[in-house]
Amino acid sequence: MKKGIIFDMDGTLWDSAAEVAESWNETVKRAGYDRKPITVKDIQSVMGKTMDVIARILFPDLEEGERQKLLAQCGEEENDYLRIHGATLYPDIRRTMEQLKKKYHLYIVSNCQCGYIELVMEKNKIGGFIRDHECFGNTGTCKGETIKLLMERNGIDRAQAAYIGDTMGDCEAARLAEIPFIFASYGFGRVPEAALKIS
């Protein structure tokens, strides 16, 4: 029986923080808001959180309905922007996945909007390595619950799986899903308590 490795996306497989900041700033401006620009650091600080939490952090002054509308616009236009401009895939990801696929089933779970994972796989030609994927945009639940949904759908045994991510939120999601966590130490976050890490 092959073991399952589930990857986080941003800060683990690729770095799109600069491109996301640029696209969100364009969307916010086009929507008629005069606000302080969102920085790369702002985006890195919220990566790994669910989309609704990100919207509350980045647009705290907006009413909930207005915030959700702007968030949806940002997500759609972000996908369009990345489809054209791409972002930075971390070194040797494709080669690493090619080797891992020989022994493991590979999956992706992210707190992103619908269409984002598919875009990243297509843009970076890694879709052939990934058996299944799931995101917050589809489930509307926290990452730990989304991981559990993907595992259940694919018949993945908790004793035969691990989640690779780069933030404390990823560590907590793995804990909720009751699977080991592997910390991608080159990513956006810090997880001092991580027992396993890759660099």
Explain what you see:
The structure is a single chain. The protein is built from nine helices and eight strands. The chain has helices spanning 17-30, 40-46, 51-58, 64-85, 93-100, 116-124, 136-139, 143-154, 168-177; strands spanning 3-7, 14-15, 88-89, 104-110, 130-135, 161-165, 181-184, 196-198. The chain has a six-stranded parallel sheet. A two-stranded antiparallel sheet has the order 2-3. The protein is globular. The protein starts with a strand and ends with a strand. The model has no long low-confidence stretch (mean pLDDT 94).
What is the topology?
Blueprint: E1 3-7, E2 14-15, H1 17-30, H2 40-46, H3 51-58, H4 64-85, E3 88-89, H5 93-100, E4 104-110, H6 116-124, E5 130-135, H7 136-139, H8 143-154, E6 161-165, H9 168-177, E7 181-184, E8 196-198
Parallel strand pairs: 1-4, 1-6, 4-5, 6-7, 7-8
Antiparallel strand pairs: 2-3
Helix pairs in contact: 1-2, 1-4, 3-4, 8-9
Q: Summarize the biggest pleated sheet.
A: 6 strands, parallel
Please count the helical segments: 9
Q: What fraction of residues sit in β-strands? A: 15-25%
The helicity comes to: 40-55%
Q: What is the string of SSEs from the N terminus onward?
A: EEHHHHEHEHEHHEHEE
State the total count of DSSP E strands. 8
Q: What shape does the CA trace take?
A: globular
Given as residue ranges, the uncertain stretches (5+ residues, pLDDT < 50) are none
Can you give the mean pLDDT? 94
Spatially, the strands of the biggest sheet line up as 5-4-1-6-7-8
From the alpha-carbon coordinates, what is the Rg to the nearest angstrom? Answer: 16 Å
Strand-pairing-aware structural class: alpha/beta
**Span between N and C termini?**
27 Å
